[in-house]
């Protein structure tokens, strides 16, 4: 299944979908709602696209002005697709692809991000891993978490839920890290 980038420099471009049943592609309507909400924060942002799937969230962020995106994906099929999509758009200089499980990478990561996308597989939401991602947010940074619509949101010290929206079977929570 192919994915259309919605807006920005690469708006209208078609990228390859995740190609695996182990990932769930986020619908265009939900992606559009997310990016309409965070658009003002994207210019020059350093972004982490964890559980990246096809890389659509990170590539949309680059299309709308993010400075860099780090993609993390453990699935080999999805890794190949992300690499193909990065090459297709010619954004190698602004992208890095980490071929590893998110938790393993997070435990050794020494940098922070302005925006983190967390879109874990719905059959395995990996909440303990998502909790670890919060420490990689810069002060006042934003995390966008996609989760099954009937699940509870995470409560974490040092971050607050600033918005929570439901889209059928999916829900999106927006977390803001408190200033240090």
What this model shows, in words?
The protein is of the alpha/beta class and 180 residues long. The chain has a single domain (3-177), classed as Rossmann fold, CATH 3.40.50. The protein contains 5 helices and 9 strands, in the order ββαβαβαβαβαβββ. The chain has helices spanning 28-38, 56-63, 76-89, 102-108, 127-133; strands at 3-4, 14-15, 46-50, 68-73, 95-99, 113-118, 137-148, 159-167, 170-177. A 7-stranded mixed beta sheet has the order 5-4-3-6-7-9-8, covered by helices on one side. A two-stranded antiparallel ribbon has the order 1-2. α4 (102-108) packs parallel to α5 (127-133). The longest helix is centred in the middle third of the chain and has 14 residues, at 76-89. The protein is globular. The N and C termini lie far apart (42 Å). 40% of the residues are buried.
Pick out its properties.
alpha/beta, Rossmann fold, 5 helices, about 30% strand, about 180 residues, 7-stranded mixed β-sheet
CATH superfamily membership: Vaccinia Virus protein VP39
CATH class: Alpha Beta
Radius of gyration from the CA trace?
15 Å
Major β-sheet profile: 7 strands, mixed
Structural class: alpha/beta
Name the beta content range: 25-35%
Sketch the topology as an H/E string, one letter per element.
EEHEHEHEHEHEEE
Q: Tell me the domain tally.
A: 1
Which whole number gives the mean pLDDT? 91
Number of helices: 5
Number of strands: 9
- What gap, in angstroms, lies between the N and C termini? 42 Å
Helical residue percent band: 25-40%
Please tell me what the overall shape is: globular
Q: Do you know the CATH topology?
A: Rossmann fold
- Strand arrangement in the largest pleated sheet: 5-4-3-6-7-9-8
Low-confidence stretches: none
CATH architecture: 3-Layer(aba) Sandwich
